[in-house]
Amino acid sequence: MSAETEETVAADGQDASVSRSATVSHGVGIPAPVSDQIDVLDAEPALQLAMELGLTADEFAELSRIQGRSPSITELYIYSLMWSEHCSYKHSRRQLKKFPTAGPAVLQGPGENAGVISVGEGWAVAFKMESHNHPSAIEPFQGAATGVGGIIRDIFTMGARPIAVLDSLRFGTLDKPRQRYLFEGAVSGIGAYGNCLGVPTVGGEIYFDAAYEGNCLINVMAAGLVREERLTHAIGAGPGNLVVLLGSTTGRDGIGGASVLASQEFTQAAESKRPAVQVGDPFEEKLLVEACLELIECGLVAALGDLGAAGLTSSASEMASRGGVGIDIDVRKVLRREPDMQAFEVMVSESQERMLAVVLPEKWPDVQQICDRWGVAVSAIGQITDSGRFVVRDSGIADAAGQIVADIPAAMLTESAPLYDPPCTRPAYLDELAAFDIASLPLPDGSEQLAACFLQLLASPNICSRAWIWQQYDHQVQNNSVVLPGSDAAVLRIGDTGRGAVSRRGIALSSDCNGRYCYLDPYRGAQIALAEATRNVACVGARPAAVTDCLNFGNPEKPEVYWTFVAAVDGLAEACRQLELPVVSGNVSFYNESFGRPIYPTPTVGVVGVLEDIAQATTLAFKQSGDVIVLAGCPTAAELGGSEYLKVTHGLVAGPCPQLDLAAEAALQKALLAAHLAGLVASAHDLSEGGLAVALAECCMAGGLGAHLDTDELADGLSAAESLFSETQGRVLLSVAAEAADALLGQLVAHQVPCQVVGEVGGDELVVGSWLQVPLAEMREAYEGALERWVNGSAHDLA
Amino acid sequence: MAVGGASSGFCFGIVVFPGSNCEQDVAGALAWLGYRYRYVWHQSGDLEGCDALILPGGFSYGDYLRAGAIARFSPVMEAVRTWVAAGGPVLGICNGFQILTEAGLLPGALRHNLNLKFLCRPVSLLVEKSVCQWLDLPVGTVLTLPINHFSGNYYCDDLMLGRLEAKGQVVLRYCQPDGSEARQASAPNGSVDGIAGITNERGNVFGLMPHPERGVEGITVGSGLGTDGRYFFSAIVKRMAGRA
Known about the structure:
The complex is a heterodimer of chains A (799) and B (244).
Chain A: H1 7-12, H2 16-26, H3 43-52, H4 57-67, H5 73-82, H6 85-88, H7 93-96, E1 106-108, E2 115-120, E3 123-131, H8 133-138, H9 140-156, E4 161-171, H10 177-197, E5 201-208, E6 217-227, E7 242-247, H11 257-261, H12 282-297, E8 303-306, H13 311-323, E9 326-330, H14 343-348, E10 354-359, H15 364-374, E11 378-385, E12 389-393, E13 404-409, H16 410-415, H17 429-434, H18 446-458, H19 467-470, E14 481-483, E15 490-495, E16 502-512, H20 515-520, H21 522-539, E17 543-552, H22 559-578, E18 583-589, E19 593-594, E20 597-598, E21 602-611, E22 628-633, H23 644-650, H24 662-677, E23 683-686, H25 691-703, E24 707-709, H26 720-725, E25 731-736, H27 741-750, E26 755-761, E27 765-768, E28 772-775, H28 776-783, H29 786-792, H30 795-798
Parallel strand pairs in A: 4-5, 9-12, 17-18, 24-27
Antiparallel strand pairs in A: 1-2, 2-3, 3-6, 4-6, 7-10, 7-11, 8-10, 9-11, 12-13, 14-15, 15-16, 16-21, 17-21, 19-20, 22-25, 22-26, 23-25, 24-26, 27-28
Helix pairs in contact in A: 9-10, 9-12, 10-12, 12-15, 21-22, 21-24, 24-27
Chain B: E1 3-4, E2 11-16, H1 23-33, E3 36-41, E4 52-55, H2 75-85, E5 90-93, H3 95-102, E6 109-111, E7 119-127, E8 142-149, E9 153-155, H4 158-166, E10 170-175, E11 195-199, E12 205-208, H5 231-243
Parallel strand pairs in B: 2-3, 2-4, 4-5, 5-12
Antiparallel strand pairs in B: 1-3, 6-9, 7-8, 7-10, 10-11, 11-12
């Protein structure tokens, strides 16, 4: 949704809004009003309504100053939405400028509906991640479904055919019936929308933790494919051009979604806000995708933007603002699904599946013809002007002089939104948790206890098989899926299936964030999120190329919450610089709190990588008996802080989160890529939650093969539990044909990556010296059906 | 409408309904196999130049009301009906199968999956002895193809089931990877008697829930999905060539 673009300012690198507001205070630079006959509100009720709509008294004073008078009701609604946290990023914009955004492959950085990078051979990939947390916490099916619909529109707005969706989900623990309802509903909603649309859902990640109980997270990442020369923008240009609304009719649904739901904390009253949740129609969106892509293909639209949060208001004002032009809209021309809608209701409606296009008048008949063919409703609702004003009129009003209901300097809505630098206080809990003495906890004793611990980890909702989820998603439509869900990252072939052009190139996609690490250390946790996402992409054989993010935090007006936000942004920005990756798009979601308790800081990171040839793609599955198992990267350390082991065996989230050496991480990923290119990797899997033991189990189960490791060859000085379950970063587990093992080790050593041969693939059990001996079937029993057991309620009876 | 492929004179018509979403995949598979194809728009009754028709997967009309229930009223379906009566070959994949049953061109119905979940995963299929013109594999062959549907739970009553059996109309059954257990217990969606695909009495109309077009190129690694989909498009071309 265009309204959520955090990057409008982040892109230009200059703090435009500061100088603008100085301009405002002098009353210079504001284009003259079009009308002087607007029905304005009286000052007192206007202020009262402004507060109800979420504006502060200062913000109300500022908008009155810009208007030079008290606002009309429509104007007040427009300002309240555009200056809401959701649309204006008023608490985050200054921080987001810290991200590096440039790079040789970047075709479109922050500031548009989605970021775009070149992936070679004239192909470009548009991608972005976005949250739909608040609606989903109220109505999970529709909330998640419209989350998919919204991000998909951001992609085809750029002229790109949507080719992939990934979902990062967070819920409370599954022993709570409400959490099972939210989880099942969200998964069904994502599937129902994406499947119908014919866009494969190829990956994602999910965590369950009590921290998300009142406020689940639904982050959706989408990617699209476009020829570089077909890139389209949401920049309204050319006075006299028609402003055209395509797609669904406009109703009262979703009114106040952005300002009411997404920009405040949750309270008991949230349930009553259910009517503010939009309802999705994926069939309409499918028709809209096809119609819009055909319009672009035929060169019939000068600009295209989607209607997301804050609906027509944000789409039209951003288009005008970006183009430095005015826009004049007649709400009477908007096709409606309900009678008697007021002008402001039409302007703020968040009815889904709508797009806004700018069309040259002479091309209007052709546009109508294509839309008719696809059964997509289309109406010319206004035009681009040179007034610099965002004018809303209602031609249904009998008195011609009173037809204009809003008259706002367009640029002020986006560029003069208030900006805040809220106070920051380092939360006291950080030191307390970091100081927790993990060594004081009893360690599992003997192979029996270790095996029990291991199986418990495999069955943990945060580790167990996600097949129950991704089998509900069409992950193959478009016939370009090379690596399916279940490996470290998804791999898609770059090909416009069925339209002739198919290449050998591919992209890899991964999204990651361990919220527990971010809770224990927001700076390092955010860096680990990037390190893991890039490592996942490198594991399947791709070179990480660019980043999108979705920064989920609590109430930014609370100093301790805001501190975690700043720390996470600082950490992520620094990690992006060190790994030389640009952030090309993203989204911030604040106010993820319920009943005064914030979620874990959750800066979800999405990474797109590039493969020169999809033949490079590798999965995590062990391939053949006799293959040599290599552990590469940082030496395993005693790092059980924030681990799944600590949570599962002791019910604790404490200790320092794992260290991260970004230089070592970069070296590992470069070495891995070189090894892939040399054809030396039979399987690759990153070590994350559950450490070495879980990674081994996953490689074994995926390949249907056992493995045999010698404990003597694992790290020195560590206990069995630490060796097996420690979540030390910067490690990957590789397997390689015995005859190629030396070459692989040579590659790793040449890149100064520590590595050791730890064992061999084969048999039908996982044996780790005297510590573990578990049959494949037993691991599968724990791992494969676990999620379904948690969902249907049988797992927690046992737990 | 686009015409793809070139090396053979045989031309497939791919019928596109609003909401179809596998038509490009079918086209890509046919092009890869070297066959010509053209799209047939749902509002058109023009099947000129087509040698066989394919109704692709997707969500025609959003699957609103019931999968296939609205698509069957599309103008093109009148032409398809005439085509079938004249013995013309038609393949319905997934949503195409659902449309064919809704249109009465194939017997039975496709209900919601037994677990009420959408299912996207590979399945094992046993080739049965049938009159189907679209498949010429030896009886007992085991294939692997992906399914991808919410309503693939085939249903017909016992009387109809007996007739399907007697007339060689059951083409594919879900089974275990070794070909055993080709019955309801192996059907991930709950289909009666494990039925995954059926044909009409004449053998020219074939509907199946699995997606053969997803098993043609073989670009997917490590999934157990191979290239068994290739068999589904070549048999009809051979048969028609033999007839001509």
